[in-house]
Design goal:
Belongs to the DapB family. It is found in: Plastid, Chloroplast. Catalyzes the conversion of 4-hydroxy-tetrahydrodipicolinate (HTPA) to tetrahydrodipicolinate. This is 4-hydroxy-tetrahydrodipicolinate reductase. By secondary structure, this protein is α/β, with parallel strands linked by helices. It has 8 helices and 10 strands. The strands form 3 sheets. The protein has a 4-stranded mixed beta sheet. Strands 1-3-2 form a 3-stranded mixed beta sheet. α1 packs across α8, α3 packs parallel to α4 and α5 runs parallel beside α6. The radius of gyration is 20 Å and the shape is globular.
Length: 244
């Protein structure tokens, strides 16, 4: 995702700060995005490097796509240094994440879903739940979500949509969610195109009445990462306008 976002930034004509970070300590390499050589640093260098970045690039917006266990420590560091950030990483302690930002009065845009069209779908589901509470009482909900094997946590988007169904009167046990991370199952059972096994997000929500006579399906499938990368750049531009 980090690389996809950097490439989207270049296409939009934004200036890339030539710095990124890895979860591995011993990293000595650079990657090229457009005409920019980006130096990759290990986690122990984060504070020193970001302090220098803040001094050299006062208008910088940090874009964060990392592992769930890095969410809170990263956010706390951004807040400590006063660096506005877009958090696209899911997982971590979300309540602590929000509190860190609020207490520091730092600027941040935090969302488990950066695809604007998917965000619009979730917003529609929220309105649905608020306008018609209990409309599906007595129905049974089944949820299946499939992502690339490297995604360790449960889909934040799925959690948000499930919360909407609960407002509609459908209780759901999160432990029953079917999470597909095996490539063979994704190809054969889910129908993910082979070229997108390493980057996709397929979601299926199936509602059934108590007597099985009525069913509804809600589905949104994403192949590749461009929808998230483009949405992240829009989020960064939006956040920058708020800061200035």
């Amino acid at each position: 995702m980090g690389l996809s976002v950097a490439e989207a930034a270049v296409l939009r004509g934004l200036h890339l700060v030539p710095v990124s970070f890895s979860s591995r300590e011993k990293v000595k390499r650079t990657i090229q995005v457009g005409q920019t050589d980006i130096r990759i640093y290990g986690p122990s260098a984060r504070e020193d490097v970001l302090s220098s970045v803040a001094d050299e690039f006062p208008d910088v917006i940090v874009l964060d796509y990392t592992a769930p266990d890095s969410v809170n420590s990263n956010a706390e560091l951004y807040c400590k240094l006063g660096l506005p950030f877009v958090m696209g990483t899911t997982g971590g302690n979300r309540q602590l994440l929000y509190k860190s930002v609020q207490d520091s009065k730092n600027y941040a845009l935090i969302s488990p879903q950066m695809g604007k069209q998917v965000v619009a779908f979730v917003a529609l589901m929220r309105i649905f739940g608020e306008q018609f509470p209990g409309a599906y009482s007595g129905y049974h909900l089944e949820v299946l979500e499939s992502h690339q094997a490297s995604k360790k946590d449960t889909s934040g988007t799925a959690k948000d949509v499930i919360a909407c169904f609960e407002k509609l009167g459908v209780p759901y046990d999160m432990n029953k969610m079917v999470k597909i991370r095996d490539p063979e199952q994704q190809l054969e059972m889910v129908g993910v195109p082979e070229e997108h096994i390493e980057g996709h997000a397929f979601h299926l929500y199936h509602l059934t009445s108590s007597d099985d006579s009525v069913s509804f399906e809600f589905q949104h499938n994403v192949c590749g990462r461009s929808i998230y990368a483009e949405g992240t750049i829009d989020a960064a531009i939006f956040l920058h306008r708020k800061v200035v």
